[in-house]
Design brief:
By secondary structure, the chain is mostly helical. The chain has 19 helices and six strands. A hairpin with a 2-residue loop joins strand 1 and strand 2. The radius of gyration is 31 Å and the shape is elongated. It binds arginine.
């Protein structure tokens, strides 16, 4: 019979039990549940709310239960209503009346809220650590490629020359922002709802600050209705994790392009690519396609959380039991994506010649050619027009700007001189873009150093 069965004249129907049970999902929080109970019972004892001696029995038994779960000696019952009921039931089985006193001045509503917050903060930290590792790998690849010229794109059309390092460091900035968003979400999650009770606290003389302190929270929630029914932290984390996935998905899309025959900018290591069951020549970037695909699933979790919350009156409603499955899925998906993408990028081969060849065609130095004339006195708009016509002429002649003769240049404008060839060389174009944030090797090296310092400070 359920712990709450006393009020009922009939046994619960199996279909209700199966539908109602959340243990399949919330058993992941067993350690947080035990930690929360230990803090609660320590506070009950300090406030003399339970008889002397009970605290020690309860804590000892809870720790035994934890050890037994971890060793496999105690199997979590899949038929139990949730992990909280399971552990309390087991405690009572093992130590009788003392166990029955644990739930004094507490409700599952504040218990669930505190467990979920602690679990989510741990998971958040786990993702932050993975993101740091990921950023380190991106920086290492960038370091090897500060002089690797590639085309920079807009509209996926070759636009201006950049370096592979410059391109990678753009992603570093995105993932650094992701870390700061997760840190921020953690801050607001770090508020203890324990003591909110079912919705209206309790008449026992509890010490909420003591419980919060024992659990390492930054503070206590100041309204009990909000304490048990706030899930903003879950939504914020799911949102920050959706943004992580959006960034990983954009990166994945580029890896898919870069490893195609059309680009061939990189080659994935054989250990991180897949084959086809019918086409013997195939080498597919499945990892990145899965990342792109799984991004939709994390967005879905966020959407489900937002929708689940939007019509709920205060305070706790059972709808909220859905929250854990959704947020856990976000954590697990981001974790598996990062742990696979990190070694995939670490081991991939950068084909510098192909990047350079792609940059050498497609007139990506046309802006620099116009800037050359501007620096010699021609107004930029006129220079822009002159070079536009020169590009048109080159295409007709099957040439590029580098292969036009001096005569052809002179025909376009007599401001052109022999130094034009040097001015439009890809190396010059990249080297001279040395404003903060630019692709010049000197600037990107500084950016990498700065990033490493930031990572060092985070440790
Ligand atoms: N398993 C439930 C959850 O995760 C426990 C809360 C049940 N509370 C209640 N008042 N029935 O939300």
């Amino acid at each position: 019979m359920a712990l709450w069965g006393a009020r009922f004249a009939k046994e619960a129907d199996k279909r209700l039990n199966d539908f109602n049970s959340s243990i399949r999902v919330d058993q992941k929080m067993y350690a947080q549940d035990i930690k929360g109970s230990i803090a609660h019972v320590t506070m009950l004892d300090a406030q003399r709310i339970i008889p002397e001696g009970d605290k020690d029995i309860i804590i000892k038994t809870l720790l035994e239960i934890k050890a037994d779960i971890e060793s496999g000696a105690l199997v979590i019952d899949p038929e139990a209503e949730d992990i909280h009921m399971f552990i309390e039931g087991e405690l009572t089985k093992r130590c009788g009346d003392a166990g029955k006193r644990l739930h004094t001045a507490r409700s599952r509503n504040d218990q669930v809220a505190v467990d979920f917050r602690m679990y989510s903060m741990d998971q958040c930290q786990n993702i932050i650590e993975l993101l740091k590792e990921w950023i380190e790998v991106l920086c290492a690849k960038a370091e090897e490629n500060t002089e690797t010229i590639m085309p920079g794109y807009t509209h996926l059309q070759r636009a201006q020359p950049i370096t592979f390092a410059h391109h990678l460091m753009a992603y570093v900035e995105m993932f650094l922002r992701d870390i700061s968003r997760l840190e921020d979400a953690k801050k607001r999650c770090n508020i203890c709802p324990l003591g909110s009770g079912a919705l209206a606290t309790t008449t026992y003389p509890i010490d909420r600050e003591m419980s919060a302190q024992l659990l390492g929270f930054d503070g206590v929630s100041l309204n009990s209705l909000d304490g048990v029914s706030d899930r903003d932290f879950a939504i914020e984390m799911a949102s920050a994790l959706s943004t992580v996935m959006m960034h990983l998905s954009r990166f994945s899309e580029e890896v898919i392009l870069w490893s195609s025959w059309e680009f061939k900018f990189i080659e994935l290591d054989d250990a991180f690519a897949t084959g086809s069951s019918i086409m013997p020549q195939k080498k597919n970037p499945d990892i990145t396609e899965l990342v792109r695909g799984k991004t939709g699933r994390v967005y879905g979790d966020l959407q489900a959380l937002l929708t689940m919350m939007k019509g709920l009156p205060l305070a706790y409603n059972k709808d909220m039991q859905e929250d854990k499955e959704l947020l856990f899925d976000c954590f697990e998906t981001v974790e598996v994506c990062l742990t696979t993408v990190i070694p995939m990028v670490e081991t991939c081969r950068v084909i510098k010649e192909n990047m350079r060849n792609a940059a050498a065609r497609g007139f990506i130095n046309a802006t620099d050619c116009a800037d050359y004339l501007t620096k010699k006195g021609m107004p930029f708009r006129d220079a822009y027009k002159t070079i536009g016509q020169l590009v048109h002429y080159s295409i007709e002649q099957g040439k590029v700007l580098e292969t036009l003769t001096m005569e052809e240049y002179k025909q376009a404008s007599d401001l052109f001189d022999e130094d034009i060839y040097e001015a439009i060389s890809l190396e010059t174009c990249v080297k001279n873009r040395k404003a903060i944030g630019g692709p010049s090797p000197e600037i990107v090296k500084k950016h990498i150093e700065l990033t490493k310092c930031k990572l060092g400070e985070m440790k």
